[in-house]
Amino acid sequence: MPLRWRVCLSTRKRLHRKEGEDEFHGLYEDGAILEPLYNPEALTRLSESSDILQQCIDAYKTNIVGFGVDFDYDVDVDKESEEVKRALDREWARYENFFKYCNLDESFTSIMKKVIDDKERIGWGALEVIEDMSGVPAGLEHIPAHKIRLCKRERKAISVKTMIQDENGEEIEISILKKFRKFVQIVDNEKVFFKEFGDPRILNCRTGMYEDDTQPDDRASSIIFFNIYCPYTPYGLPRYIGQLLNIQGNRKAEELNYTYFMDGRHMPMAIIVENGKLTEDSVNTISGAKGDRARHKYLILEAEGLENDVQIGDDEVKSKVSIRIEKLAEMLEKDGLFQEYCKNNRDKIRSAFRLHPIYTGESQDYTRATADTARQVTEEQVFQPERDDIAFMFNNTLKRILLIKSVSMKFVAPTISDKAEIAKAVSPYVMAGAATPNMLIDALGDLLGKSFEPFEGEWADKPMQLLLKEMEIQNGNETKEAEEEPEKEEGEKDVNTPESPEDGLESIEKSDSINSIVCILKSLQSMIEEVLMDDV
To answer: For residue range 474-503, what is the model confidence (pLDDT) as tens digits?
Structure first.
């Protein structure tokens, strides 16, 4: 057998139901409960042996679901009637309240962080949907994924009703056939069954049988199952599964370095005495030469020569003694072993998650431009697709049961764009008059720290320069009459001159004269230019 296969099999044996006793051991033989490829308990604890795995998992759960949720209308609300708008607002409130009050102890974001944590650790995550007596979802609860096992998918397909839109945009009800599966968990040495979310049948949580006369206390709740797809196991596998050897190798390298500190040799020099030996006082001096007691002191060594075999008279003749000191620093390790090997393994494990080093706290060597580009690419290629997939699962299942038709949930993404850079890029178009008032209303709101409603009317969606030119042409006569009016008395206030940008926006909405709107727009332009000049 090739060495590569022997190493892989050895690693797999350590993780394959041998590191900890599987609580489902003995329940896989009949095939009703599916056996995972790897021991979920061992995979759950694998981050304890890695110096990079936990950081990657934290980056995923923070950036995918950590920024909260938001909602969007699936239709153009502005084109709907007031009655339809009120109905849409009620749908919005009902859908929003479900996620807001789905759990009394934790927020929906906290629950989903745990689900993502499980999914990235072992390859799958589970979310329990708690239903009321009428079968409508009323709450959500996290279930530790390593405690859940999948049952074999049923052969018989069940008819499920759902609503779709036809080619005319009308909602119609259709029936589709779907095969469901059950889930099982061991609680107090007893099996507890769950049904797949969307299964219309009543499942007995104790027996695992579909029984319509099941008592309310014995009715099984549902599970929404999330996994990282793998074609040869329905459980899924974690992203790092191909890096198991690197994770194990890094751990062995760290253990080797730690053992060196505990049992290794750290002697910086050797004192060699020829034809003699050090006196007892010298040995004691060397042994005690450490810490503050040895600061700014001289080391004096005394040695006694060995007696020669030849003796002349009563005089003792001893050999000539020499003492020399040999440095051992070249033989000592100046740094930890396998540092480059560990660094390369960290890069490989991180690449399995497709993460840039800035997401794992290694950002000291990157400029802002590099970091922003890395964040943008990771956001587009990794995090946003994950958000869309998870949001689709909720919208595709919950909306139908909660009778939500035109409102969808989505996970909020972080804001990566730089306002200063955007303003710099947009400035030429604004100066050229290509921007419309409604295009700039959001930017103006951010500048002033307030929120403004978009202007109503066709004029608000026309470029500023074109709008001003059309107004001047259409109101040539009014302009001439305005020039012929006598000058206002001193102290009289011009109604077309706003005192602040907020007053100008309100005046535009209230004004019914095109000439007045032109004057107010010009005043606003002058006012903003003065503010910008003051800032400079």
So the answer is: 766 555 555 555 554 444 445 455 555 556
